[in-house]
Amino acid sequence: MVSLLRTARRALLALAAASAFASPAEAHAQTTGRVRVDTLWSNALRTRKQFVVYLPASYDREPARRYPVAYYLHGLWGDEWNWVRNGRLDAAMDSLVAAGGPEMIVVMPDGDDSWYTTWNALVTIDACQRDSTRKEPAAAYCVPWPHYDDYVARDLVAKVDSSYRTRADRRHRGIAGLSMGGYGAVSLALRYPDVWSAAASHSGFVAPLLDAAGPFDASRPPRYATDVAAMATRWRDYWASLPFAFGRDTMGWWARDPGRIAARLQRTDAARMPALRLDVGAGDRFLDQNRALHFTLDSLRVAHAYAEHPGAHDWTYWRAHVPESLAWLGARLADGARP
C-alpha cells in the first residue's frame, strides 16, 4: 500500500512539474480551440462545398467525449470564413469556455448568396457564371440545383455527425447567423424542428415582406407589401439573388416568411418549437423587420428572447454580440438544460 501511495504521489508531482514548465505555446494550446477546414459532397446542391469547424480545446485531449454543435451562417456576399476572420468567433468561444461556459463544436458552412432556402426559380449555370464576381470557383458557387435548406439541414448535419464526435440529436444542436444568415438560422430551425432545438439571429432579414411605408408601429399588427415590385425597389441592392430565392410573386415570399412558418409550427407541432433569440442594432436597416417578427412571435405566444442594442449593420456590432449568442446557445444545448 505504501508503495502504491508513493507511486501515485510521484505521478502527481511529475504532472504538476510538467504543467509548471510547459512552454507558453503549449499552455496556450491547452486552453484554446482550433479551427480547421473540411469539405462535403452535397446531394442537395450536386456539388462539393467547404465548411470551417471550430473544435474546443478539450476535443483532442478527451477522445471519448462528445459535444453539442452550433451552426453559424454568414451573410449575403460572405463566406464560411467570415465568422472567424471578421467576427473572431473562435476567440469568443475560448473566452466563454475560460470563464466556465460549456464547450461546443461550431460549424460555419459556405452558403453562397442563397438565403438558405430552396430557390423559387432556377438560374442557368452559364448565366450564373457570367454574373458571378465571387472569388470562389464558379463550379462551387453556381450550383445546378439550389436546395440550400436541405444542404445545411440534411447533408451538412449528416457529414458533421459522421465525422466529428457530436451529440447527434436536436437537443444538442443549435443554429445562428447574421443578416441573411439570421434569416437562415430562424427559418431553418422553424422548418426543421427535428434538427435544431434553438436558433439565434443577429440583425436578421426576418420579415422580408414588411411594408416600407413608415417606421414600424408596435401598437398594431405589421403591414406587409402586396406587390413584389415594391420589394424590388426597396431591396434593389440585394435584388441579384432575392427574386431567385424568394420568387417574383408574394406567394413565394410568404412561403418563406419566418412569422408564417412559426405560426404553422405552433399549430401543428408546438412541442418542438425551437428556442428563439433575436437581436438587432438601433441603427440597423433591418430594425423594423426584427420588431415585426418580435410582435408576431408575441402574438403567437411563442416564447423568445429579443434585444436591441446601439449599433449598425456591420462587423463592429456582430463582433460585440456574438459572445451573447454563443453563451445563449451553449446554455441551451448543454446537458441538463432546457432549450
TrEMBL record:
The keyword Lipid metabolism does not apply. InterPro entries: AB_hydrolase_fold (IPR029058), Esterase-like (IPR000801), Mycobacterial_A85_antigen (IPR050583). It holds the Pfam family Esterase. GO terms for molecular function: acyltransferase activity, transferring groups other than amino-acyl groups. Gene3D superfamilies: alpha/beta hydrolase. Residues 1-22 form the signal peptide. Keywords: Signal. It comes from the Bacteria. PANTHER family: DIACYLGLYCEROL ACYLTRANSFERASE_MYCOLYLTRANSFERASE AG85A, ENTEROCHELIN ESTERASE-RELATED. This is Endo-1,4-beta-xylanase. It comes from Roseisolibacter agri.
